[in-house]
């Protein structure tokens, strides 16, 4: 079994979880109480009590087939890492990210498609984008909700080994620094690996390795997405609520909450470091290989059996405040 090597502070957003094999056993126990899935053909309504929420930013990905997200709204991350940042994005993933329409483009049916490809020499490519805005956070005494409706790559079994789709956010001080993770905070709204039928929501914070946030694993919850995360589209949402005496973080799939963390669960200085800055930027990417899928599969991924050409589809990303 491959072992995830510990990172030093600032070295590796989303480098983790050699302990996830144990988590899979816990995840299997959730089957009896699996969450209800969203109808794959329906566009779900905004959050409950929608009159209290204001839509403050969104992308519906409604462009013509073959066109791409606007560079006014999104930045394309290219290659194998940020300039001056950790190699392989700090995760060990192997695909080079591109802005080629073969890797990232609208499908003409209202979705953004991010596709992992392998060339004849065995080299993988995929794509990763992040919002130009870095100020997503709740207002004073308010709440933030980020939600996205996504379909995971429709591939399972050996053919899926190494697939690692993600919808997540990083603290704004990371942009241009690349050495201050995990202290500045990371919210993983959705992660899935190797085509397995669960999704993770995670907070990364504090120091690494170890620290108050159990790095490099983070503080994670998991869900079965109503029985299968691969049966069409599901809505993944995250709320950061500052309206009470103690701030709360909450994770949802199809409007069913499955994970929460309170400000009171963390040391005051850890919470201040992740919360007391300008905000967060949102990312969408489809990685191939790396510490997370390797640690879960017990082998180096991708393998010869991994099948290229599968896509993560994104119907929308919406940000609400109240």
From TrEMBL:
<dbReference type="InterPro" id="IPR000757">
    <property type="entry name" value="Beta-glucanase-like"/>
</dbReference>
<keyword id="KW-0732">Signal</keyword>
<dbReference type="InterPro" id="IPR013320">
    <property type="entry name" value="ConA-like_dom_sf"/>
</dbReference>
<feature type="domain" description="GH16">
    <location>
        <begin position="38"/>
        <end position="322"/>
    </location>
</feature>
<protein>
    <submittedName>
        <fullName>Glycosyl hydrolase family protein</fullName>
    </submittedName>
</protein>
<dbReference type="GO" id="GO:0005975">
    <property type="term" value="P:carbohydrate metabolic process"/>
</dbReference>
<dbReference type="InterPro" id="IPR050546">
    <property type="entry name" value="Glycosyl_Hydrlase_16"/>
</dbReference>
<feature type="signal peptide">
    <location>
        <begin position="1"/>
        <end position="36"/>
    </location>
</feature>
<keyword id="KW-0378">Hydrolase</keyword>
<dbReference type="GO" id="GO:0004553">
    <property type="term" value="F:hydrolase activity, hydrolyzing O-glycosyl compounds"/>
</dbReference>
<dbReference type="InterPro" id="IPR006311">
    <property type="entry name" value="TAT_signal"/>
</dbReference>
<comment type="similarity">
    <text>Belongs to the glycosyl hydrolase 16 family.</text>
</comment>
């Amino acid at each position: 079994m491959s072992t995830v090597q510990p990172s030093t502070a600032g070295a590796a957003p989303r480098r983790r979880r050699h302990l996830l094999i144990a988590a899979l056993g816990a995840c299997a126990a959730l089957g009896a109480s699996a969450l209800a899935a969203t109808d794959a053909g329906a566009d779900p309504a905004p959050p409950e009590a929608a009159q209290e929420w204001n839509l403050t930013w969104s992308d519906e990905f409604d462009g013509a087939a073959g066109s791409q997200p606007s560079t006014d709204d999104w930045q394309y991350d290219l290659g194998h890492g940020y300039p001056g940042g950790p190699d392989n994005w700090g995760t060990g993933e192997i695909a080079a990210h591109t802005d080629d329409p073969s890797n990232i483009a609208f499908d003409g049916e209202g979705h953004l498609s991010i596709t992992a490809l392998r060339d004849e020499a065995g080299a993988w490519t995929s794509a990763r984008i992040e919002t130009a805005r870095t100020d997503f956070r709740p207002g004073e005494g308010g709440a933030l909700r980020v939600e996205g409706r996504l379909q995971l790559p429709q591939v399972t079994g050996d053919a899926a080994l190494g697939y690692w789709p993600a919808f997540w956010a990083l603290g704004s001080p990371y942009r241009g620094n690349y050495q201050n993770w995990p202290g500045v905070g990371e919210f993983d709204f959705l992660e899935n690996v190797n085509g397995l039928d669960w999704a993770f929501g995670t907070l990364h914070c504090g120091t690494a390795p170890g620290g108050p946030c159990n790095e490099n694993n983070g503080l994670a919850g998991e869900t079965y997405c109503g029985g299968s995360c691969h049966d069409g589209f599901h809505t993944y949402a995250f709320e950061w609520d500052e309206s009470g005496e103690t701030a709360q973080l909450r994770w949802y799939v199809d409007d069913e909450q499955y994970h929460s963390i309170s400000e009171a669960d963390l040391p005051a200085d850890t919470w201040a470091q992740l919360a007391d800055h300008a905000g967060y930027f949102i990312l969408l990417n489809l990685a191939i290989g790396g510490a997370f899928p390797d640690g879960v599969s017990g082998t180096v991924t991708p393998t010869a059996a991994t099948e290229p050409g599968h896509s993560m589809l994104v119907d929308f990303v919406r940000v609400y405040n109240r």
